[in-house]
Specification:
The chain is an all-alpha fold and 71 residues long. It contains four helices and no strands.
């Protein structure tokens, strides 16, 4: 977390993609972990706005969080 915060979500993805190798898989896994760690409010709005089925995804996430909080 301490290494991620200075570069931010977008900087982390750019660094991973420029690193070479299996960049799409590595960036996908790292993005999922970093997004969970940082929270949705830390993700670039231009990335979020391009999500397909954004409203459905947000609804499913809210329902999942409710289930987790119930116990």
């Amino acid at each position: 977390a301490s290494r991620l915060e200075p570069m931010g979500f977008q900087g982390m993805l750019q660094a991973l993609v420029c690193g070479g190798g299996d960049t799409d898989t590595i960036a996908s896994m790292a993005g999922q972990i970093a997004g969970t760690l940082l929270g949705v409010n830390s993700l670039p709005t231009e990335y979020l706005s391009k999500l397909p089925e954004q409203e459905l995804l947000e609804s499913v996430c809210r329902e999942f969080c409710c289930l987790l909080s119930e116990g």
